[in-house]
TrEMBL record:
The lineage of its organism: Bacteria, Pseudomonadati, Bacteroidota, Bacteroidia, Bacteroidales. It comes from the Bacteria. It comes from Parabacteroides hominis. This is YigZ family protein. Belongs to the IMPACT family. InterPro entries: Impact, Impact_N, Impact_N_sf, Ribosomal_Su5_D2-typ_SF, UPF0029_Impact_CS. Residues 20-125 form the Impact N-terminal domain.
Length: 202
């Protein structure tokens, strides 16, 4: 996978696992920010207020550098870590996995817990669709109106998304393109007479 793309999930999905009368209900949830993670956790804690444990792990950002795992009272590393392990083994990001446990009265032991949380997390991830997305960059280019055709020809060939455009005597366009292709697009645009990238001129 290129360094300007990442894998995430399309929609919320649910998984289920039982072991020795303990029930594990799992959810894979698409999230973008830590705030969203907190909102979702509050929602599931309220929904399953009578559950013994609400354990979770999340991974955020295309570089997959922002992550946390929480055992919520289970023995250390028996819940959050196996959940995070499933996120990692699928190479996913912008995802929160929550596993809710209803205790069935029989202790599972640490290895039993690890298997249960790992399996429940895997079930939820398997139930959702995984998609690859690109890491994009926005480029704003300013130029004089007579050079519009030259700029538009490059836009047509490179095919970036047009975020905004303003065509007056002085024109400005903001384009969005995959990060790996951004430098080439910038170089081509800057070859057009009068074109410059605002904020970069000396």
């Amino acid at each position: 996978m290129a360094d300007d793309s990442y894998k995430t999930i399309k929609q919320v999905a649910e998984g289920y696992y039982t072991e020795k009368r303990s029930r594990f209900i799992s959810y894979a949830i698409p999230v973008r920010t830590v705030e969203e993670v907190k909102e979702q956790l509050d929602k599931y804690r309220k929904q399953y207020y009578d559950a013994r444990h609400v354990c979770w792990a999340y991974m955020l950002g295309p570089e997959r550098l922002t992550f946390r795992a929480n055992d919520d009272g289970e023995p250390s590393s028996t819940a959050g870590k196996p959940i995070l392990g499933q996120i990692n083994s699928n190479g996913l990001t912008d995802i929160l996995v929550v596993v809710i446990r209803y205790f069935g009265g029989i202790e599972l032991g640490t290895s039993g817990l690890i298997v249960a949380y790992r399996t429940a997390a895997a079930e939820a991830i398997a139930a959702t669709g995984i998609e690859e997305r690109t890491v994009d960059e926005d480029i704003t280019i300013a130029f004089e109106y007579p050079y519009l055709n030259g700029i538009m020809r490059i836009v047509k060939e490179e095919n970036p998304a047009i975020v905004s455009q303003k065509f007056e005597m002085d024109c400005e366009m903001t384009l969005r393109i995959r990060k790996g292709e951004a430098e080439r697009l910038k170089a081509r645009l800057l070859k057009v007479e009068s074109a410059y990238i605002p904020g970069t001129e000396f």
